[in-house]
Amino acid sequence: MPSSVMPTSSRTSAPQPPAAVSAVGLRKSYGDKAVLDGIDLRIPAGSVFALLGPNGAGKTTAVKILSTLISADGGQAQVAGHDLAADPQAVRAAIGVTGQFSAVDGLITGE
Question: What share of the chain is helix, strand, coil (3-state, %, to 5)?
Fold first, then answer.
């Protein structure tokens, strides 16, 4: 077999870019209401990602967990290579988060 042709089974896959965000089994409950039930997520560094879903799907809860505003009840997550549980301060230093509405929107003018 020519050296330039390799059987499919012995090809190595291209290396994946590092993950900007990764989560495995992310869980959060409020009382007996599970709002996140084992979310798995991998967002490659340098990519654009949209988190879409109906009201009550857990989007805001996931963002709050990944930005260290609240803690997860289970699972593991890393943001910018930092473990949320082990080093939340490093996560906070590496990211910037803003909500849909800003507290200063009504104060900003064209002047």
Answer: 20, 30, 50
Instruction: Judge contact between 28 and 65, C-beta under 8 A.
Output: yes
Residue 2 clears pLDDT 70, i.e. is over it: no
Residue type, 46: G
Q: How far is the C-alpha of 59 from the C-alpha of 56, rounded, in Å? A: 8
pTM exceeds 0.70, yes or no: yes
DSSP secondary structure of 14-58: PPPPPEEEEEEEEEEEETTEEEEEEEEEEEETT--------TTSS
User: How far is it, in rounded angstroms, from Cα 79 to Cα 71?
Assistant: 14
| Phi, psi of 85, rounded to the nearest 5 degrees | -75, -40
